[in-house]
Amino acid sequence: YRCDDFVVNDTKLGLVQKVREHLQNLENSAFTSDRHRKRKLLENSSLNSKLLKVNGSTTALCATGLRNLGNTCFMNAILQSLSNIQQFCCYFKELPAVELRNGKTAGRRTYHTRSQGDNNVSLVEEFRKTLCALWQGSQTAFSPESLFYVVWKIMPNFRGYQQQDAHEFMRYLLDHLHLELQGGFNGVSRSVILQENSSLSASNKCCINGASTVVTAIFGGILQNEVNCLICGTESRKFDPFLDLSLDIPSQFRNKRTKNQENGPMCTLRDCLRSFTDLEELDETELYMCHKCKKKQKSTKKFWIQKLPKVLCLHLKRFHWTAYLRNKVDTYVEFPLRGLDMKCYLLEPENSGPESCLYDLAAVVVHHGSGVGSGHYTAYAAHEGRWFHFNDSTVTLTDEETVVKAKAYILFYVERQAKSGSDKL
């Protein structure tokens, strides 16, 4: 009971719940005294383990790692990346804490179990608490077990301790945050809070599955999908909202194993974006139902970006099914740290400002290993002008040269402000 693992089938008298409450009281009293002791220690000692030499001067490393709870590096890499997307992270950190407004449970640690019911589980609250624990500099590593229990509860796909796909987790996380924010929280409508936030104006919102939230306001973009019948020429257009773009690594680059290999040109992020947006003839398994011909016909497909998001998330499709195996494409893809220019992929580029389509890199998730069900995830992220490498509990200062050599799996690009320079991809 102390670890509060999932317990079902309580007795009629609720004895399991009574034991849990007793242990919670013991834990809370111990936690309070421990907190006072730690505060004194912090006041009396310098954080020697977190001091780094930067440009000849000693500075405190305020970054906090995330403990691995058993193959949870996929979650840790995504959380660290999102924590370094300032506008997104600040929104959650500024939300009021649930526990402070709940009377009985004020100031107490909340445990989430199956016996408590779905109403007592809040992904937004646990996500908020995790983000608040990062970058405060009071500890070297934070254990996100409360968040992980909520993930288990509302996302059954991620139960257990096997390795999971970081991109799949990110999509589930953003989708569930979006749904919970739409529903309101603690009696306050998230839509109202979003509308009051002047930096997220209505013109920048993208609605996906209902009302806009901070998730869609920051990550939401819109694609235009054009399909043309090759028999009669009928054109079909539809708009699809997106939170990220999944890009194929073009087949001609897939045999390249290292960055320094000289046989042929190097694959770049532009190659992947061009492959995504170029005109494509659909094969026999993807015949288009032409409304004019009244039957399935050969056709072409092309994507245009109708609206760019504030944060452009690009997922490189490194895992592919072949027969009964899921293989990894280990090709190095060159990507820019600054000035990713998305203007040529826009449906109406003439309506965009001179620098409204430029993006700078904020974070990179990297998969190390050969398979999706194995290997290890780490993340690189920029914070206040410095690059850090997040490897579960370990956080180290790194440099741009190391970041650009990484074999990226997920890239997070932040829209550049108008005052920046014109360094382009």
Automatic annotation (TrEMBL):
UniProt record, GO biological process: protein deubiquitination; proteolysis
GO CC terms of this entry: nucleus
Keyword Ribosomal protein: no
Gene3D superfamilies, A to Z: Cysteine proteinases (3.90.70.10)
EC number: 3.4.19.12
Classification via InterPro entries: Papain-like_cys_pep_sf, Peptidase_C19_UCH, Ub_carboxyl-term_hydrolase, USP, USP_CS
Every USP domain range: 64-416
Keyword tags: Hydrolase, Protease, Thiol protease, Ubl conjugation pathway
Reactions catalysed: Thiol-dependent hydrolysis of ester, thioester, amide, peptide and isopeptide bonds formed by the C-terminal Gly of ubiquitin (a 76-residue protein attached to proteins as an intracellular targeting signal)
Listed GO MF terms: cysteine-type deubiquitinase activity
Family in the record: Belongs to the peptidase C19 family.
Protein name per UniProt: Ubiquitin carboxyl-terminal hydrolase
Origin species: Chionis minor (Black-faced sheathbill)
